[in-house]
Write a structure and sequence with these properties.
This protein has two helices and four strands. By secondary structure, the chain is an alpha+beta fold. Helices cover 35% and strands 14% of the residues. The model has no long low-confidence stretch (mean pLDDT 78).
């Protein structure tokens, strides 16, 4: 028996993609990649301190974008990785006072 995909599901996914398509415009220092409802943000810098500052600035911009578009950033599902010679350094990154 053949079954067509539900129009509402396909249309809902398409509308969601159109809705979040401009998220990359809110953070000029970051490379933002979207896959379904996941967002990856990639940052790099000449020093760890510079990169952490970029990360905090980018998170602030993303948080404002989420609020403006009536979306939320789920802090308990948000994580970060430091790659390179400072990979073992732990840095405090916060969004709205909540540490990641």
């Amino acid at each position: 028996m053949w079954s067509a995909p539900r129009i509402s599901t396909v249309l809902g996914l398409l509308l969601f993609l159109l809705y979040v398509n401009d998220i990359g415009n809110c953070a000029s220092d970051a490379c933002i990649k979207l896959f379904a409802d996941d967002t990856d943000v990639v940052l790099h810098g000449k020093s760890l301190e510079n990169t952490v500052n970029k990360a905090n600035n980018t998170l602030s911009h993303l948080s404002a974008w989420f609020c403006a578009n009536k979306l939320s950033l789920c802090i308990n599902k948000t994580s970060y990785s430091i790659l390179g010679k400072h990979a073992n350094d732990e840095r405090n990154t916060t969004v709205h006072g909540t540490s990641m």
